[in-house]
Amino acid sequence: MAFGQEQIATMRENARKFMMSGDMDNAVLVLNKAAQTDKNNIDVQKDLALAYYYKKDYAKGLEIVKPLIESGKADVATYQLAGTLYRGTDNGKEAEKIYKSAIEKFPNQGPLYSEYGEVQEVMKNGAAAIGIWEKGMEVAPSYSGNYYNAAIYYFKQPDGKIWAILYGEIYANMESLNPKSANIKKMVLDAYKELFSGNLTQMAATTKNAFAKAVLETFARQSGITAQGLTPETLAMIRTRFVLDWVNNFNKKFPYRLFEYHQQLMRDGIFDAYNQWMFGPTNNQSAFETWAGANKAVYDKFTEFHKSRVFKMPAGQVYSNRK
Question: What is the DSSP string of 47-78?
Fold first, then answer.
């Protein structure tokens, strides 16, 4: 038995190497041999279904993964794989069933909400999708994928720019090394430009969400600064005054980790550097490089601090789904 398990482990490792090199045919060949050696090994079955997914042979992958789901032994990754395979076949209804079952079994797993919301979005159920992503933020506040999806969703809504700004910046902090972070930073900057091109006082007056109303009112008091244009430097000024105002007027009623983080950066004297990190490269790469060169000590201080911490959102701070 020990020799058999050792043999299986070697075969799985070989198959992984084939998958990493893009040779899915050999990966499938090796994993099929492993499956014949140990018919009850769930890990081998999952690997094989994944290899078929990479081969784009979704039907074959589903043949393997469906019995795992029906066995009652499936873990979160197995449900995710099943959902992804159904999405590959453009079978949104079956994918929906899989994610519903998965969330019922694993109600606090953020990735399930992220992917389930994506299924709803593909099925043109935008309102359902954002509700699922917001629920995902509630039950798994430190999982980044739901903030990413929610930010993009709200950016597309005429009255959603404030949520795109907040969720986009949260994602950029959670996933600073992810290539998608650069696109999100650009989206946040664009959302700020669109927001400040309108009448913030009027927006606040017609906004029903109490948190959004407070944010818009606070930004409206700083909007005069935008007469100088919206750059990393003017955004730093606007956001500095915003945080000071927010702390005095709304922090107790609406505690928000992102604003508390801004306050911490201000106390440490690195908030300007943070705003350059957030908006500089996407606004003007050469101007950012000039700034970073002229302010090397403070930018190095920020980057060292930034690398030493993990940004996490606490529970209870999803305000976009409240009145």
Answer: HHHHHHHHTT-HHHHHHHHHHHHHTT---HHH
